Amino acid sequence: MASALLRDWLDKPNTGRGVSLATDDGGWDHRDYGRLASAARRTAGALIEAGVRPGDVVCVVLPTDFTCVETYFGVWAAGATVCLVTPPLFQDGDDYVAHVAAILRQARPVLTIASDDLAPLAARAMADAGLDGEPWAPRQAEDEAEVQPAGELAILQFTSGSSGEPRGVMVTWENLEANCELIARTAGFRDGDEVATWLPLYHDMGLIGCFITPISLQCDLKLMRPDHFIRDPARWIRCFATATHTAAPPFAYAYCARRVKPEQLEGVDLSGWRMALIGAEPIDPHSLEVFAELLEPFGFHREAFNPAYGMAETTLLVTMDHVWRRPLAVRPDPASLAFGEPVRILEQHELGAQSKGAKSGWIVGCGTPEEDVPVRILDDDGNELAEGLLGEIVVGGASACPGYYAGAEGKSTRFADGPGGRSGSVGRGRLVLTGDAGFFHEGRLFVLGRMGDSIKVRGRSVYVEDLEARIAEVTRLGKGRITVTAVPGAGRKGLALFAETNDDAWAGDVREMLRRRVGEDVEVTIIVGTGLIQRTSSGKPRRRFMWEQFRDGRLPNARLASE
Predict the structure, then answer these.
(1) Cβ-contact 482, 406 below 8 angstroms
(2) Secondary structure of residue 225 in the 3-state scheme
(3) Which of residues 427 and 432 earns the better pLDDT score?
(4) DSSP labels for 384-406?
(5) Is 3.30.300.30 the CATH number for 470-562?
(6) Can you give the pTM of this predicted structure?
């Protein structure tokens, strides 16, 4: 049974290894796996006493600490499905309560666990979601419970929406086992390896890649909170005097290069750092190079960079450049970025000195697919495209999740049944149509980003429908006269706004609003005119088609709004 492979350590803990939790004073608090397993099983006993049964959904609203670790695996030991909910970060109380309530409304948990400080917000969210009772404070029974049989789902992983309704990805035990095995294999995990991470546990890369996988293998784990990293990024880097593996989005490597001074790393030997995964956002080579130049004097190898591609709907990992080689960066011709057409590569190089300053227009390859996680590129009609042609990335294999919970439907990302494999020879199975644009070049997958309905900002999906509603307020135009699309590009994130009007006096206010919502690094193009918005027979805007028409000069009544 797949769940046994992920929960086996609860019965057979290695007391010689464990989790070291970062403390606020700069130190570490260590607990071995024997102590953690005992606490998790006592937590399971308390959960069972509270009525939790195998297959039930339990929502967990806890900060990253040992109580969270013990509670997480306590839920699993009780045979239930875990749904980790983010603690409040930058949202105000009302926005946070609305977000959590949307999750609870779908998840319908039998229990919502919250720490004392988060219980008031969790209680408000429960009431808004129509759930009876109060949040359950983490606790442990006197005796350790036996590990219970598990239900079908291991995790309910809610996608990170903006103000839109979040959707829970159903991750089965089989999905999770397959993906953890893929991560361990492609990352080159060896017995005795150590992982260091600051990633939040409610996000799939932090939860599955840097928490569940190393703990299920009983690796030593150094676990920091995100605020520890933001305050002192050098602390994370110093972990790699002993740690060998980590993962982080591109902005984290650039942040380290800006904030960390060489004197903070004096005496640290980083030559044993074998894997630094990069994912969750489009990867620009400049961020990697400035990080490598900072750490090269301390033994860091550029070959340790492992650019990767993945998403919650595929459990996590899809591809990773796990060969010991420098990442490959390419600069496609923007004029060639049309679906079904060849991508013209203007320049390419391996990561090195020439990568410095190579931000705009450059993207980094994210590795080659493994046989058990087939990846294909399809055109708009569902036909498979050859290497070098741009299309939608479609993923199959055992990591492809069965769908969204409670009948929720995706926007850009969809699920389907169909043939797997780039050659079509893998048989039939579940497919994830990712909503991401990409192509293969020299056998590696290159990802341009979302195709039309959302844009990734700091690892979170911001949906264009939410932006359209806000723009309608700012411009006083009706929603039907506004369409926003994410624009696939190389090494950048872009949004195009089409507005059915010849008046653009509002353009400056909209640009300022969008900068606040999606960041300064997102390129915003505002197009005004008449007859711009084209729709499908069902009334949905043809977002990407409109952008391609404008880019190719086929919208005669369109013009760019004034700056």
Answers:
(1) no
(2) coil
(3) 432
(4) B--TTB-EEEEE-STTS---BGG
(5) yes
(6) 0.83
